[in-house]
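Lecture 7 notes. Example A: sequence first, then its C-alpha cells.
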Amino acid sequence: MIEPKVNVAGFMGEKASPAVSPIEAYYPAAVQGAVVAVFLPAILGFSLWPLVREPRIGQGEYASKQVSAPLRLDLNRATRVELAQVPGIGPITAGKIVEFRDQVGPFSSLNDLDQVKGIGKALVNRVQRSLYVNSENIPTRTLFKEKLGGSLVVKKIDPNLATQEQLMELPGIGRVLAARIVQSRGQVQFEKAEDMKKVLGIGNKTLEKLQPFLEFPSNQVK
C-alpha cells in the first residue's frame, strides 16, 4: 500500500511550499517595496543623526566660539560697523562716536566717550571690557610740544593766524572743527580763549583742552 505524500503544510498530494512570513502573506510585493522605500530613509536618518550632529575639528561649536569671542577694539581705530557690534552700542551710537572722532579728534581715554551725545557714565562703564584706547597710537601734538632739558614745554599758537593743518594738531580739533575755525575768522575775532566757543562744535570741554595751547598775540599789537 502506497502512503499519500504529505507536504509541510499537511496537505495531501501537494508539493511542499517554502515558509511564508505573515507580512508576505498579507501584503503584496509591490506594497512591501513601497513601504521600504518610504521608511528606509527615515530609519537611516535617525541612525546617522548623531554622526552628522557631531562637530568636526575646527568647525561647529568650537569654530563659533572662536568667531564670537569678545575682542577689545581700539576706540580710535574701530570702524562704525565694528563699534555697532559692541554690547550697548548700536548703529546709531556707533555713528555718533565716529562722527565725534572725525570732528573733534582721537579719544585720549574711554572716559572721553561721555562727551558724545547720548552716552553717559553707565554706558562708558559697560564698554570697558570691549573697548580700549592705545595711548601709543594717539597722534602726538608735535607742533605744540617740545622737550627742553627733560621737561615738556607747550608751544602755543594764535587761532587767528594758524593754518587749518596746524589747528588740526590741537587736542579736540579735527578736520571739520579746524575748517570751521578758519571760516569763522572772517566774522569772529578771537581775542580770548572764551571766544573759541563762538565756533559751532566747541563747548566747555573742548575749550578746556584747547586753552593750554592758545595765545592771542595778534590782538596785543596795536
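Example B, a different protein, same format:
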Amino acid sequence: RPDDSGGMVFSTGDRVEVYGLTHENVVHLNGTKGIVVGNSDGYHRVQTEDGDKVDLRAKHLRRDESVIDSNIALEHYAAGDVVILHGLKQDAFNGKTGVVLKGMNQAGRYPVRVSALGKSVKLKPSNLRRLNKVGMDFTPQKSGKQKALDILIQRCIMIELEESKTVPEKLMENYGTLMLAYMTKGETKSAQFVWKRIPKAWKKVSYLKGIWELGRCLLLKDRKTFFLTLDKTKWPTTLVPFVDDLRSSTQLRMAQFIQKAYSSISARKCMDLLGLKDSKELDKFAKSAFWTYNVGDEYVYPAVLALSNKNSQGLPLSTLREMSSCIARFEIS
C-alpha cells in the first residue's frame, strides 16, 4: 500500500533498493541495496550492505527483486551466526537480531536466541537473514582532538624545560597533564619515562601517584583496576577534563579489542573491561555500538548490523572462530 509520499510502506526486515534520488549529496546512493531496520516520522531507516544507515522516504525505495525466497530458504546457518528475523506473522519479531544457537533440528528449524525478546525461538531458514559480524568502527581517527593532544604535549614539555620559571605546584600539575596526555594517545611508555624523571619527593603527591597507577595498570593490561583507580582517586579540578579524555580513549580501545576478539562475551567481563558500573550502562553502550544485549542477559554479542555481502572475499566463519579462540588465549584478564 502507498504512504503519504506516494511510495510503498515497507516493514522492518524488508529487503529494498534505493532509487530516484537527485540531490548531488545523495545521488550516489541510487542502486544501493539494504534492509529496513526501522520506521520513524515518515522515513524508513535502511541498513545498507556497507553497514551504513540512511533515512529515506518510501518513494525512494523499491523491493529488492534480486532476493529470491527459495534461495534464502536453502541457506544454512551455524551456531554463532548473527541473523535478522523477517517475514513472521508476529510483527514484533520482525527486524529483531538474534544469534543461532545450534544447527537445524529435525523439524527443519534453527533455535535462535533473540535478546530483545528475552527468549529463544525456533525458526525456518526462510525467516532468517544472515548479518556480518561487524559493529561500530572503533578505529581511532586522526582528529582535531589528536592534534590538540600533540600541541598539549609540546606545551607541557616546554614548561618542563623552563622549570626554573615555574612554581612547584604548577610544575607538578604539568607532569600530571603530560602523563595523562601520553596515555590518552596510547603512548603509556612515554608516560613511564615522565614518571621516572619526576623528583622523588613529588611522587608522594596523591594525584601524581594515582596517575602513575593508571599507567601501571595500562602496561599490565589490568583494565578493571584501571577504571577503579579512575573512580576512587580525587583529581584536581584542572585535571578532570584530561582524566575524562583518558577514560573515553581507553574505553574506545577496549571496545575495539572486544569487537575483534569475541563473538560473545559474558556481561560481567564486558563491564569490567569497559569500566561500566552496571547492566544499564552496558545496555546503553551496547545499543550505541550496535551490539546485541539487553538488561539481564548473561552474554553480550558484539557483532551486529552489517548486511552480508556474497561478493566479498571474507574468511569463512569456521576460520574466524578458530582465530577468535587463539586471540582469547591472550585475552585481558
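Note on Example B: The domain at 15-63 is CATH 2.30.30 (SH3 type barrels.). The chain has four domains: 15-63, 69-132, 144-231, 254-328.
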